[in-house]
Amino acid sequence: MIRLRGQLIALTDADAIAVRQQLPEHSRLTKAEPGNLSFEVTQTDDPMVWEVMESFRDRAAFDAHQARNQASPWFTATRDCVRNYRVEEIGD
What we know:
Layout: E1 2-9, H1 13-31, E2 36-43, E3 49-56, H2 59-70, H3 73-77, E4 82-89
Antiparallel strand pairs: 1-3, 1-4, 2-3
């Protein structure tokens, strides 16, 4: 299993708006991906910061998600946000 954990940080109000607007569709698409086990992005008490937790069945599923993500409207709209993530391989 591959797990990604960390924070998405908006640097401007426009970035925070983009995250809120794009997140529902990005979440829907991610949860529908083969190999996705979980996907949670939760806004913290700070309106500019979201906690991110994702897990995927294996490296291939995670890599496919990353490829789709890089070409998505989500990534384009949130490209200026700071992504402070840690990726861990768990188990076999």
